[in-house]
Amino acid sequence: MSATLAAVPVVGGRHRADDLRIRGVPRRMLAVWGALFFNVLAFSANPTLVPIPRPVGQLLTQGALMLAVLLALAVNPRVVVRSNVILVLLTMLGVVAMMTSIHNVFLLGSTFRACRLVGFVLVLWLLTPWWGRQDMLLLRCHRRCLWIILGTVVAGAAISPGLAFAFEGRLSGILWPIPPTQVAHYAAVLLGTSAVLWMCRVITGRHMLVSLALGGAVLVGTHTRTALIALVVGLVVAGASLFLGHARVRRTSALGAVLAVGVATMFASEITKWALRGQTTQEAGQLTGRTKVWSQVFDMPRPKLQELFGSGLSNMSFNGLPIDSNWVASYLDQGWFGIVIQATVIIILLLLAATRERGPQRAVALFIIVYCLVASFTETGLGTASPYLLDLTVAASLLVREGQVSHS
Description:
- Helices cover 65% and strands 3% of the residues.
- By secondary structure, it is an all-alpha fold.
- The strands form three sheets. Strands 1-2 form a two-stranded antiparallel sheet. A two-stranded antiparallel sheet has the order 3-6.
- Strand 1 and strand 2 (14-15) form a beta hairpin.
- Mean pLDDT is 86; it is low at 1-24 and 404-408.
């Protein structure tokens, strides 16, 4: 197998801090992951600094999946794969989605989304020989993509702040149209993984400060409550997994608790204003009207077969309104079967994390899993080709152990 990489250097029993630098990442692996990431970088209707025709943007993002398949075959020409229960479940999800989508009212769109999911999972299968590596290769590729994406967001805001904050005063991407919720997701994952790696002494304090400054500023600028809550909960769980074995975690936890209480006391009104985003308390309690759409989805009469297996993959909307909940959207598109499969994936990952030895792989994986679980209540993507599915893939790659691979 080509594109191998030496294990993470260890100095004095600890991971050396510069192990995440790009020079240590095989370029072909980074190209595969970058193509996958670009494929899920959905082309939104947000205005851009240089106008990009919608058909062109969609062609570029959707064409990136075929590029990812070709690149994956280039780095894994013998089609060597590792058995993995997570990908078996995702393959089942894709196959059933294909079977139901061909009966959807919107045949072409639904079937295309199902084919995309199957192709996406195929690339993940081709990358399984690189799962379980001690150097956390897929995590490093993932973080590099996050740095690049957030760099474009910050660059766009520096060039044209008015346009960058044109969407209800929330920061969005304008070099490439990225909505505020996705920008917040990328910032939170980068910030959270950086914090965990710093607590494990994998990256330096300077690296962590840059991540904190960039990710924190972007996260605040997006005014996205879901990402912030998921980030905090994920860090608490990841920190708890390291609490007994790392003095830095204990000191950081104590300092963080004190700062949180102080900031909440001194800036309570400002924090409340930021969280409400100009909404009333009732509107915030209804999650900006999301709960009304959720009720409509579950109240809609459906044939028993559609309740079990869904009606095929859609654009995650109902009566023209976004669903904005992974579990509600999964019920509509993939039925109870899709919900059970996705819940099983989360449970298996949590069980794997519980049996993994304490360390950075386990802590980062726990952060990602918990982050995705919390965010899934008001975001979609655990059952489709999306950034969230990439996040869970990274978590799974950190939890499996290095072992033998088999030829397909």
